[in-house]
Design brief:
GO terms for molecular function: aminoacyl-tRNA ligase activity; ATP binding. One of its GO terms (biological process) is tRNA aminoacylation. This protein is 41% helix and 28% strand. The protein is built from five helices and eight strands. The longest helix is centred in the middle third of the chain and has 36 residues. It is elongated. 5% of the residues are buried. About 11% of the residues have low confidence.
Length: 216
């Protein structure tokens, strides 16, 4: 059982028991004051201290509002914990927020089930496979784009009879253009100009790249 599960179980046991919560203002020199004072660094001790005590479980300084007993919380679920800067950060939901969070997670699970056409317990493995496929496909795409750019560069430089050579690529991207420009880095080419236009009249935004070269 992980740390978050242990924390949730302990909290839920206390909620079921309905432990009382009692706020009080501690005075310097009292047992309550001395127990809490050790938690403060020298010079940071407040002049007055409001202490909230959970019957037989915990006692801490706090200035917030509180329930009369833990049963009023109904339920508590620790979402995650993180150790940072010498302290443990705890993310949790309580009361009706637990139900809302559960409903949100359940809706997301139903959506993922439809998208993957698989049971919830298979979502993780399906996601991992998709990420691996995407990584492989992206690598192959970059390799093919580089080969295409090399072919286009050879074609452009071979058009020696033209004073100005213009190249247009529909739905191009900046990465492809940079690769092409790198391959066209020949001393015989004196000028490159780039214009990128975006059409909003199509269902999807499309990018058009224009590359012009002028020979000296």
């Amino acid at each position: 059982m992980d740390r978050a599960s242990v924390s949730s179980t302990t909290a839920e046991d206390a909620i079921v028991a309905g432990l009382t919560m009692t706020p009080l203002f501690a005075k310097p020199g009292t047992d309550e004051w001395n127990k809490i004072a050790a938690k403060f660094k020298p010079g940071e001790m407040p002049k007055a201290m409001r202490i909230v005590t959970i019957d037989g479980l915990d006692m801490n300084p706090c200035c917030g509002t509180h329930v009369q007993n833990l049963a009023q919380l109904q339920l508590l679920r620790v979402l995650s914990t993180e150790y940072a800067r010498g302290a443990t950060r705890v993310w949790f939901v309580a009361g009706d927020r637990v139900n809302r969070e559960f409903s949100r997670m359940l809706r997301n699970e139903h959506i993922m089930t439809k998208l993957f056409s698989s049971a919830p317990e298979d979502h993780t493995s399906r996601t991992e496979k998709l990420l691996q496929f995407q990584k492989s496909a992206t690598k192959q795409l970059k390799s093919l784009q580089k080969k295409l750019a090399a072919s286009i560069a050879r074609d452009l430089t071979a058009r020696t009879a033209e004073d100005v050579v213009t190249y247009h690529r529909h739905e191009g991207d900046l990465g492809f253009l940079q690769t092409l420009l790198g391959l066209l880095g020949d001393q015989t080419l004196s000028l490159y100009s780039l214009m990128q236009t975006i059409s909003y009249h199509q269902p999807h935004v499309k990018t058009q790249l224009y590359l012009s070269k002028q020979r000296s």
